[in-house]
Amino acid sequence: MLKNRFAAFSKRFLTLEDGRYGRLVGTGDPTAIRVxxxxxxxxxxxxxxxxxxxxxxRMLTDVAVRLALxxxxxxxxxxxxxxxxxxxxxxxxxxxxxxxxxxxxxxxxRRRVVVGGLSMGALLAAHLAAExxxxxxxxxxxxxxxxxxxxxxxxxxxxxxxxxxFDNGFYxxxxxxxxxxxxxxRGHMTYDVTPIRSAVEVLRAGREVRSQLARxxxxxxxxxxxxxxxCPVGNAARFASALGTKDVEVAIMPRSGHIVTAxxxxxxxxxxxxxxxxxxxxxx
Length: 284
Hints:
By secondary structure, this protein is α/β, with parallel strands linked by helices. The chain is built from 9 helices and 11 strands.
């Protein structure tokens, strides 16, 4: 009974049939980023978050440019101009994209690389560090999504995972990214709705990656916004303590929300990423 009522509600609520929703909004270039640096110097691989674009991890590829490293920031499966594409993909597809990008960058540089990501992208980076330690020299986890904030969005997604209203197509309107800097928030590229089916996949990803963290043995930088309304700031300490390495640095950004690469502390985030990556260049 409850499942049927939830499904009926979801179909009436927002199915995108009228064409008013489902667009990528914001400003900037949403395409994949590729940087070819000095030969044999190493590389940096960066992954955007769920419902985001490579533009939100451009900070990492900019660091690579300053350090003469090669870099890649792929556009993950389903993240094109229409949000409906996200309804057909999930964690396994994103892992395939991330693994392919890692092998391509390592092969092109003939070196190990630093992997990093934002939110769900941090989960992808951690997965690669656990599964392909021979190719990963360091890990940068920004606003990691190992746990989602309670009661929202975690509780809603847990309920949806059980009741499956997304079988009829279920989208929740999105007010904007969790960025406290208002100008940066207005320009941030994301969709105007959240597709619940693929958002549930982020819960699954968090569970899987939590079980893999003990196998991460490379140096790790963990950064999180103190004001994050999507992933609790406690994720930073939990993530760090679960790692298999003792070479870990945790930094909490006091004025930032979830998108720490674009928020008020972004200059400090960039400094920490560059300092961390510069330290690892000799070991790549």
